[in-house]
């Protein structure tokens, strides 16, 4: 492999999390815009207990810390930046994807707080009846966190096996 193509692969590998985060923010913002535009008249039944229902959350998970949107936003930006920085240092593609999912979800919700004009609130629109209303950014954060946990557990198990084998 030539030096140029190897350096391109290295650069591409380092920015996987950034690409994933950007994609998450874009899809999240599109779906939130659609929710605001189409759910003003009331909820739309999807199936079973699931509805699209417009809500605004000025807190974070489960509406905790309601009214502290500015502080939550600053913390989210710092955490997202740290995750993206760390992602350039890890070798695992799936770990980079997971970090990008979490960072993208955090930045998607920060975008709402800063740019949507709902008093620092985040647009939530997926309602299940048995879970607080959420959005795709929230789903991305949870999915990324679960992937990080799975990857970390598998890595720890693999490390222990290799130590026992030596």
Automatic annotation (TrEMBL):
<keyword id="KW-0645">Protease</keyword>
<dbReference type="GO" id="GO:0006508">
    <property type="term" value="P:proteolysis"/>
</dbReference>
<keyword id="KW-0378">Hydrolase</keyword>
<keyword id="KW-0812">Transmembrane</keyword>
<feature type="transmembrane region" description="Helical">
    <location>
        <begin position="93"/>
        <end position="110"/>
    </location>
</feature>
<dbReference type="InterPro" id="IPR001872">
    <property type="entry name" value="Peptidase_A8"/>
</dbReference>
<dbReference type="GO" id="GO:0005886">
    <property type="term" value="C:plasma membrane"/>
</dbReference>
<feature type="active site">
    <location>
        <position position="138"/>
    </location>
</feature>
<comment type="function">
    <text>This protein specifically catalyzes the removal of signal peptides from prolipoproteins.</text>
</comment>
<protein>
    <recommendedName>
        <fullName>Lipoprotein signal peptidase</fullName>
        <ecNumber>3.4.23.36</ecNumber>
    </recommendedName>
</protein>
<keyword id="KW-0472">Membrane</keyword>
<keyword id="KW-0064">Aspartyl protease</keyword>
<comment type="similarity">
    <text>Belongs to the peptidase A8 family.</text>
</comment>
<dbReference type="GO" id="GO:0004190">
    <property type="term" value="F:aspartic-type endopeptidase activity"/>
</dbReference>
<dbReference type="Pfam" id="PF01252">
    <property type="entry name" value="Peptidase_A8"/>
</dbReference>
<feature type="transmembrane region" description="Helical">
    <location>
        <begin position="59"/>
        <end position="86"/>
    </location>
</feature>
<comment type="pathway">
    <text>Protein modification; lipoprotein biosynthesis (signal peptide cleavage).</text>
</comment>
<feature type="active site">
    <location>
        <position position="124"/>
    </location>
</feature>
<feature type="transmembrane region" description="Helical">
    <location>
        <begin position="130"/>
        <end position="153"/>
    </location>
</feature>
<keyword id="KW-1133">Transmembrane helix</keyword>
<keyword id="KW-1003">Cell membrane</keyword>
